């Protein structure tokens, strides 16, 4: 009968989805969660070290693409159909490696936030190491979608060949806010809470969080 056919079709469909899922959006390997949570612990002190120890309105010069926010992620997901999470995760590592390097570069040897930032960088490198080792090497040789490849090429350009128009000024705190928010969005499986389904990729989630903590505007 027809309804039996429909049920069979449904099962076949579900089965195919199940088969396809790991290919289309590689889940975050569980091994990633330990270093990412450690990183998250460090990031919880970012206000103290990235704002209070710097002059008011202090900004540093970063590459345009080093401003990598939740809105960039949603835009890229719209631009590239079936965009693999792994591609965005790779981009996240690439961007934030540059961000940490630039923050460290402006801090003199004895800057009170230097040990914090240096430790953050070590923890970031640890997470990157686990990331690289928990995926087969071929994954990192895969061709990137064009928009992502363009971004990547710009990020890895020699600094003195970057035209003036592609530099931006951003505060260290805002860069680490982006770092933290996009980490939760792209590795949400590691930050899932038991009580409630959270959408770490939505800007409103972080606005709410800010009010809850009664943190002053940054
Ligand atoms: C991440 O850090 C925040 C504090 O910034 C904390 O509230 C949250 O529980 C941490 N998440 C995990 C999974 O460790
Ligand atoms: C910091 O920036 C804000 C907004 O742009 C401005 O109103 C304020 O005067 C600035 N503070 C200092 C000390 O420059
Ligand atoms: C994020 O979006 C801004 C514009 O809102 C853009 O300047 C920046 O290059 C984007 N970042 C990346 C990594 O694409």
From TrEMBL:
Keywords attached to this entry: Signal
Gene Ontology cellular-component terms listed: extracellular space
Protein's UniProt keywords contain Signal: yes
Keyword Membrane found: no
InterPro entries for the chain: IL-34, IL-34_sf
Signal peptide interval: 1-25
Superkingdom to which the source organism belongs: Eukaryota
GO BP annotations listed: positive regulation of cell population proliferation; positive regulation of macrophage differentiation; positive regulation of monocyte differentiation
GO molecular function term, any single one: macrophage colony-stimulating factor receptor binding
Name of the protein in question: Interleukin 34
Organism per entry: Dicentrarchus labrax (European seabass)
Gene coding for it: il34
